[in-house]
Amino acid sequence: MKKIKEVAGNNTSDLVEMNRSAIVRILQQMDVCSRADIAKMTGLTQASITKIVAVLIEMGIVTEVGFVKGNGNRRSIGLRLNAEQNLVIGVKFSRHLFSIGVFDISGKIYTQQETEFSLEEVALDVVADMKRQIHELLNKYENVVAIGFAVPGPYLRKIGRIAMVTRMPSWQSINFINEFKYEFDKPVFIEQDANAGALAEWWFGNHGRPLNSLAYFLAGEGIGSGIVDNDRLLLGNLGIASEVGHISIDVNGPTCECGNKGCLEMYCSTTAMLKKAEEMLPGFSEKDFDNRLDACKKVFSEAREGNKEAVKLVEKIAEYLGYGCVTLINAYDPEIIVIGDIISQGKELLLPTINRIVKERVLPEISSKVQIKISELPVDPTLYGAAAIATDKVLRKPSEYLVK
Ligand SMILES: [Zn+2]
Q1: Which of 142, 210, 219, 395 is the most buried (most CB within 10 A)?
Q2: Range(s) of the domain holding residue 48
Q3: pLDDT tens per residue, range 259-274
């Protein structure tokens, strides 16, 4: 008989692991804290905390470090996660390049390398190169506990294939699970880029705690979003939940590759922005730039310098991002929306318009409770997200994955 997830029970061993995970996850966020702090945050009794922490220390997952200030003037022993002994490899795969980084589970980066490829290259050759580079890093860094992959959406996570990638159809035949899951002697976890970004903000973003829900709004070559709700990534049945880039904002608009009409992605992705720039800014041509990031940065710098047409163009993009935020708020009710990827380079040029649209179009009682921010992660959110995918998994099962 099929086990129904929602009503499946928890065995005692599952509960023990859940409590260990709760403590480990708090330590990942807090850097150093006392047993009493953890008791307050988890609702577990002091006696339970003492017992679980003793095991985590014995396993080498947690260490005692000096004293922290406790209640009143009392000093308590500080606890911290042995993050540097637990490394993860993050792999970001996108339309023109893949990047691989080695991080620890606190988000500290150790190394990062990028490889560009062209859409004409044979997909399997690119895959072989990725595997070779990952093997090299595994030989060099012995404490890697897991590998996370961030791939463009919509990614069918149970099947392992990207359902549709604008402008790169040859990659649709690549099955990421078959290619990577069994290639290394480390666990491999794969999610789509926007979900990866959401986890990067969740684990490594500095948004204050406790946070209950977060939406990551990916605005780059594609438009997408990732939602963390109640401490969990929202996946849906196939893994394509929260694909806001393909929500129709004009039912009679131009036909999108996905089959829908007037998809949000057609109005505020880098493709849309650069097409508009070529129409509106005299002499502007995407071809004059090495890549889309540089081309978009040029548009933003023109706007900052007061070029009226560039200002108008950026404002239009911001309006569409605003419509995207309205949809995110109405659909997922997040506490915070973090906008990331190439378009977020517009930073202060975008936020006033986005906030205005949200204020105009969402009930005040709701809009006043949502904070909209631009990502401030020090590393590319998708690559960071690939590391966060692996981090998220290992922190949920510390006894299974973390170095003992
Ligand atoms: Zn579409």
Answers
A1: 219
A2: 8-81
A3: 999 999 999 999 999 9
